[in-house]
Amino acid sequence: MNPLGELIAGRIHANGPISFAEFMDISLYHPEYGYYARAAQRTGRAGDFFTSVDVGPVFGELLAKQFGDMFRLLTNLQSAISDLQFPIPFDLVEAGAGNGRLSRDILDAAQRTDPDFYSAIRLALVERSPAARAAQTATLDGHAAHLHHRSAALPEHIHGVIFANELLDALPTHAVAMTENGLREVFFDYRDGRFVEYLDELTTPRIAEYLSRAGASLGRGGWRAEVNLAAEDWMMAAARALKQGFLIIIDYGHEESELYGASHAAGTLATFRRHVSPAAPISGAVPAGWLQEPGTCDMTAHVDLSAVRRAAEREGLNLIARLDQTYFLMGLGLDEIMASPQGFETGALKRRLALKTLLLPGGLGSTHKVLVFGKDVGSPALKCCSYRTRLT
Length: 392
What we know:
Layout: H1 3-15, E1 18-19, H2 20-29, H3 58-79, E2 90-95, H4 101-113, H5 115-120, E3 121-126, H6 130-140, E4 147-151, E5 158-165, E6 174-179, E7 182-191, E8 194-200, H7 205-214, E9 224-227, H8 229-241, E10 242-254, H9 256-259, E11 270-272, H10 288-292, E12 298-300, E13 303-304, H11 305-314, E14 318-324, H12 325-331, H13 334-339, H14 346-359, H15 364-367, E15 368-375
Parallel strand pairs: 2-3, 2-5, 3-4, 5-10, 10-13
Antiparallel strand pairs: 1-7, 6-7, 6-9, 7-8, 10-15, 11-12, 14-15
């Protein structure tokens, strides 16, 4: 057993079985042995999974276009009610920032094409992994002077935009199962030198309340599901921190009617190592590999888009749009980039193939959904929302 497994086993011995949510939190975020704590970067060909950032700088370039427009919109709103010196600082807050690659791509593009926006950026990188935070200054390189906040927590007062790319799916989630005796939560015990699944009463009534709001009955005995209270809490905290501006969530997930339907009766929990899932979603007999070696795999669950929307709206945010990443990026001009004439050099061809990953059905373009919220910004016609409700 690895050191993190020994630590978890000791905690169970001292305090009893732990919930799946606690097991996931320790496995991913333990400051010394957790999956995200042990490396500044886990994505790309040499990593365990692939994100939009790994396609190249174009994802950041397109976001920079939208953020620049948001900067000008806020500047106009603020200048209409006060006599301010320009440029007005614009908080650019990346949550789940890793080593800062995406923010670097955004700053690179802004510096080249939008100097007014670039000079106004006040960057905040929010990241729990100590290794990733330590790498951020080097990753930002010449943009490090714009970094005003580097922490595991959001800044308290934000005027600008908060964006999170594949953050909510990695927040620790409760796992539940419908049994003959009603709804039970998934726990892990440690017996005979192994971690084993253990079903027991819910740790908090919020779980049942969450499922009730979703209208989720979980069908017959044996159905599984995830209840991500941490995602709700994060959305509410972000909404409170945002005083004026925008919140953009990019992640893979579903509306609750699909997430808690028959198509996901086994739940959506999955683990990844070297781009392969070494274990199917939990479905009764828990696979041994990732469970017995915690901290060695990425762990994710699909996001409940309905729940995070309600959480944001409870704290005063307005939903501006929800759409597939394909349509979000098309609104920012990715289809024009794809259609532009290019040579047949190896580099150009690789770039075009990579861009298809962001657009074509079955790739990141359709699996990833985008939610755009606003606070005290009215109802702006944002470029990214040209395909306002296109959601598959």
